[in-house]
Structures are given as structure tokens and as C-alpha cells.
Amino acid sequence: LYTDSPLRAFENELGVQAPVGFWDPAGYCKEGTAADFRRRRESELKHGRIAMIATMGYITPEYFKFPGFLAPHLGLEFSQVPNGLAAISKVPSAGIAQWVFFVGLIETGFLKQDASRAPGDFANGGTLGVPNAGGPIENEEARKRKLNSELANGRLAMMAIIGMFFQDGLTGSAWGDWALYTASPLRAFENELGVQDPVGFWDPLGFTADGDVSSFKRRRTVELKHGRISMLATMGYITPEITGKFPGDLSPSAGLKFTDIPNGLAAISKVASAGWAQILA
Q1: 96-147 pLDDT, tens per residue?
Q2: Chain segment 141-153, per-residue pLDDT in tens
Q3: Residue 258 contacts residue 247 (beta carbons within 8 Å)
Q4: How confident is the model at residue 160 (pLDDT cuts 50, 70, 90)?
Q5: How far apart are CA 251 and CA 273, in angstroms?
Q6: Which pLDDT value is given to residue 128?
Q7: What is the pTM of this model?
């Protein structure tokens, strides 16, 4: 019903998928500029594709490594390179220079975005980015499904690789045991009520990072209060829709009946001033 939203300009784009639909919590698309949307879509596709490759690159060495030498002049074999973030410390400077050169070559030449083509669609890139490996998908529905799948998988991979980096940095392995992260101040609260599967102790904003017990208890008191009020409020929103309303007058002096009160937020405008005083009291 909110037809004035500038986000409607993009709600039929690729990547708008159930269950969240068009999801832009940071409000990047509020200005409704098509050029900005296209630039961000190009970046999203690029980052998603890199993240998918990076995720596979994190997983593969756990099962397979090339035989032979990575750097013969240093006597460094592939098998001597540790997995995860620790591998960076073993790569020779010449190897890092090769990375930069190769990626720069790809960015500036082979896979350069053409404004006349869709975001992420390169004339030189075939199936899976292999040069000239197959042409475009002719069936429009199949093409849309595969492009949506690429966006969804890329988004998942971006979350996955960041999670791997984070866990690797704290435990020494991309899927390390959190028991190894003994320095965590969150251990002070990991046995508290509310610490439940599947997320365990969940504090993404780091409110408890200082390990202050009094602050934790204050926030727990507030959490319980807000939770109880929200449960009552939720039932208060639902009940009039299902069971109806009380008979009789809400405010006899004003001739206001319970049935005269609309549901939802509109009810606020009908509450008499004496009623507000009772609520506050």
C-alpha cells in the first residue's frame, strides 16, 4: 500500500527474493538513482563471486593440496603451507606480486564492465567465467533463475567467508573449536539463562565485551521487562482482531464504546485523557 516508496523502483530487480523481498536496511537506494543501483549491483556481483571462490579456497586445502613446490628456490612445498589466514605468512613476496598483477590484469582488461551490458555480464566471460565457454542462456525463465541463484549464493558466500576469517582469527581454524578462544570476556556469561542453541551466547554488538557483571544484570532486567511488555502488546494487537471487543462503554462521559475503538495504532487517537492518566498511573 506504500506506493510512494522510492524502493519500488528496484523491487522487480534480480535478487529480490523471498522471504525478505527487497532488503535495503541501510537505505542505500532511498534516493532511487538507477546509476547508483547499477554500480552497487556490479560491486555485489563482483564481491559475491570472489567470496564464493574464497570460500572454496578455504575448504579445499583441508582435503587436497598440490604436490611439489610452491617456491622451489625457497624449498617451500605446497604441503608446508598452513590452511586459513596463517597461509599468508608463508607466501613469498613474489607470489603476492603475482596476485596483484593477475587481479589487476583481469580488472582492467579481460573482465572490464561494459555499460551497454547487464551488471556482471562480460563479453569475454563464458560459463563460470571461463573464456568463450558457452553462450548466453536462451530460456528467459531459466536465465532469471540462475542469475537469482548466483546472487543468493554470492550473498551467502560473503557471510561465510567473513565468518571463516573471524573464527580462524580467534581459534586458529576456520571451523575451530570455540573452546580454544580462552581470552573471550563473554565466557563470564556463557552459562547464563537465555544462552541457547543454535547461536549460544549471542552479543553481536559487544555490549558484554567488558565482562562487567553489574551491567549484564542491568541489561538482563531491561530485556525481561521489555520482553514481558512486548508479549502483552502483541496479544493486545491480535486479540481484538480475533475475539472481538468488550461490550458496553469505554468512556460513558464521552459516549465512547469499546466497539468504537479501531484496531492497531489508530486506537491511540480515541483514548480519553483520563484513560491516559490511568495508563501512566
Answers
A1: 899 999 988 888 877 778 888 888 777 777 666 666 666 677 788 888 888 8
A2: 888 888 888 888 9
A3: yes
A4: very high
A5: 10
A6: 62
A7: 0.60
DSSP the chain: --TT-GGGGTTTSTT-BTTTBS--TT-TTTT--HHHHHHHHHHHHHHHHHHHHHHHHHHGGGT---SSEEEGGGTEEGGGSPSGGGGGGGS-HHHHHHHHHHHHHIIIIITPPPTTS-TT--TTB-GGG-BT-S-----HHHHHHHHHHHHHHHHHHHHHHHHHHHHHHHHSSTT--GGG-TT-GGGGTTTSTT-BTTTBS--TT-TTTT--HHHHHHHHHHHHHHHHHHHHHHHHHHHHHHT---SSEEEGGGTEEGGGSPSGGGGGGGS-HHHHHHHH-
Residue type present at position 126? G
The amino acid at 156:
L
The CA distance from 233 to 251, in Å, is: 22
Identity of the residue numbered 141: E
